[in-house]
Amino acid sequence: MLRALLSATRSAKPDDPWDLAGKVGQLESAHRAHCEQPDMLLVRRAYRIAEQMHRGQARRSGEPYITHPIAVATILANLGVDTPTIAAGLLHDTVEDTSYSLEALRGDFGDEIAVMVDGVTKLDKIHLGSAAEAETFRKLVLTAGRDIRVMVIKLADRLHNMRTIKFKKRPSQIRIAEATKDVLIPLADRLGLYVIKRELEDIVLETLEPEVFQRIKEHLGSESDRSRQVAVIAPQVRRALREFKVAARLLDRPRHPYSIFREMEKHPGTGPADPPRLVIVVEGPATDCYAALGAIHKVWKPVGGKFRDLIAAKKFNLYQSLHTAVAGPGGTVIEFLIRTKEMHETAEIGIVAGLRQSGSNPVEVQLPWLQRLLDWQHEVADSGQFLDSLRCDLADQDILVFTGDGEQLLVPKASTPVDVAYCSGPSKGHRLIAAYVNGEIAQLSRPLRDGDSVELVLTTEQPYGPSKQWLDHAKTPEAQLHINDWFGAVDDLDSTGELPVIPMQRFEDELKAGKNRLWRSLIARGRGLSGEQPLHGVASSLGYPDLDSLYLALAREKLDPDELAEKLITTVDRY
Q1: Per-residue model confidence (pLDDT) at position 414
Q2: Are residues 417 and 335 located together in one domain of the fold?
Q3: If DSSP codes are grouped into helix, strand and coil, which group holds residue 87?
Q4: pLDDT per position as a tens digit, 386-427
Q5: Residue 563: count of CB within 10 angstroms of its CB
Q6: Boundaries of each TGS domain copy (predicted)?
Q7: What is the CATH number for 137?
Q8: Could you say which DSSP state residue 181 is in?
Q9: Which pTM was predicted?
């Protein structure tokens, strides 16, 4: 099929009123510029197949449909992704919208590209919005867990669709913009793809609040004070850096419309404002970032409460920088972001920077937050509870707290000492008996604020364990899950008498190890487990009285997880 399509494409020489050749040329130039080892033959093969399969299809704008895959692939190329991802971007709609089957695509391009296209196709079938069923979010997380590049392609796809949203009817514009705001923008943030996140935010604002957006744009277009302030500040910054022997580039980083809108929401009654914000990109190691910070603070007085060390406390999406604000000339507040070259790249393209690292396997590259969601996905039987966990984890309201061990932690806003205790795992959380916040004894239910210092008091005596009241105190899904696991294990021990008497911590660890072994086998087969109900029948058929006994057998290698996964899949598919 591939040979026939390539031959047909070469022989055809249609007119090109939409400048497809120019658009493909821009795609190829971007890929060469941002990829160390581009395979242009593969890109051209993928384009020819996509162009042939989409021929005759048009978008609402009147453009040939192929302009959309080209645009998606060009967005990906400018991020610096590898060639297979570019090819998948070109082909991402062929299986869903044309006669080109997934089997044919796999035969023409191999498993790697076929898996990505299949993943994007499945994501397209998920209704993404605030009213989406909880189970669809499980599917989204499972798909992302198999190959993170699928989510990058999906975000590029949504970005181009948002760029052309004006061709949709008004109700569709609102629905798509709301879904983008609720799910895809937070996911772009979690992946560290700020170049995509910023543009999506601005288009969503323009779609949902057109008058506010236009007001902010007019302000940005007429602003001259800010430019004059930056022109005065920049030479002083460069002199200070030279004095501290720090080689660095200085970049002006004005706010984009949505970030200005957020500030207006925080301070009702104020108009658009964009005070100076500069990025210092040091040429040397991370220690030079702290030297640059010292240089800035020597020239201008720091503004209290504005310093954040996000190098020591790395964010969920790999972002690292020092943040500070100072009182500049005339009392003007100046914000600085200080980072290395590597940190600056990651600040812009996030997970793609990790994918570009030499020798990394894209299928194995995962962010800690995604791995955490995958763990929750099989630990939480109830889809509604998992949805609450996902929404909490996607919430863009982190605070920075300091522990008694000198560690810096980013936790969700309104977290309590209970949440901080469980950040390091159940072995510490279960032993919590008291906490000091900023040097004073505090209730375990006390909501923490940004910059709080938290010292945990842990017991070493047996017996120990959480209180059920902690479920009301805990705000993070991680803490709630560990507490529920504890009481679930205790209830099983008290009621059945079937399980061997082992220390509670070891029991809990073995249960989790068994669950993980089964989950990895299911993931390898492209499957998940939305609830444990199907597993009960399988456990009974294998002679295990309950799931805990089954998980213990998996943990102790008395039961093969691959055989169990196959039996479970067969049982589920039968019904």
Answers
A1: 83
A2: no
A3: helix
A4: 556 565 555 556 778 888 777 778 788 889 999 999 887 777
A5: 11
A6: 397-458
A7: 1.10.3210.10
A8: I
A9: 0.71
pLDDT in tens, 476-530: 877 887 887 777 655 544 444 443 333 445 556 677 778 878 887 887 777 776 6
Give the per-residue pLDDT at 477: 74
Q: What is the pLDDT of residues 349-392, one digit of tens each?
A: 888 887 776 455 555 555 666 666 666 555 555 555 555 656 55
Query: Does residue 345 contact residue 333 with C-beta atoms inside 8 Å?
Result: no
Q: For residue 448, what are the domain limits?
A: 368-555
> How many CB atoms sit inside 10 A of residue 180's CB?
27
| Position 116 confidence tier, pLDDT thresholds 50, 70, 90 | very high
What's the pLDDT score for residue 132? 47
Is 96 a residue of the active site?
A: yes
Is residue 456 located within the same domain as residue 380?
yes
Q: Which of 96, 112, 182, 485 is catalytic?
A: 96
pLDDT confidence of residue 140? 63
Query: Domain ends where: 349, 379, 414?
Result: 349
Compute the 3-state secondary structure of the chain and give helix, strand, coil in percent, each to the nearest 5. 60, 10, 30
Q: How are beta strands 333-340 and 322-327 bridged, if at all?
A: antiparallel
Least confident of 84-98, 385-399, 466-480, 522-536: 385-399
The number of folded domains in the chain is 3
Q: Long-range contact list for 130-138, CB < 8 A, 24+ apart? A: 130/178, 130/179, 130/182, 132/183, 133/383, 134/383, 134/384, 134/386, 134/387, 135/383, 135/530, 137/383, 137/386, 137/387, 137/390, 138/377, 138/383, 138/386, 138/528, 138/530
Q: Which of 97, 342, 509, 532 is catalytic?
A: 97
Name, in order, each residue with C-beta under 8 angstroms of 507's C-beta and a sequence gap of 6 or more: 489, 493, 499
Question: Nearest 5°: CA angle at 58, between 52 and 61?
Answer: 145
Structure tokens at 52: 């042939």
Amino acid at 381: A
Would you call 97 a catalytic residue per the annotation?
Answer: yes
How many residues can be counted in the chain? 575
Q: Are 300 and 328 in contact (CB under 8 A)?
A: yes
Taking phi over 0 as left and psi of -120 to 50 as alpha, with beta for the rest, 540 belongs to alpha
| Residue of 308, 314, 368, 370 whose CA lies nearest to 342 | 314
Lowest mean pLDDT, pick from 60-69, 404-413, 425-434: 404-413
Residue 547 token pair: 């799931």
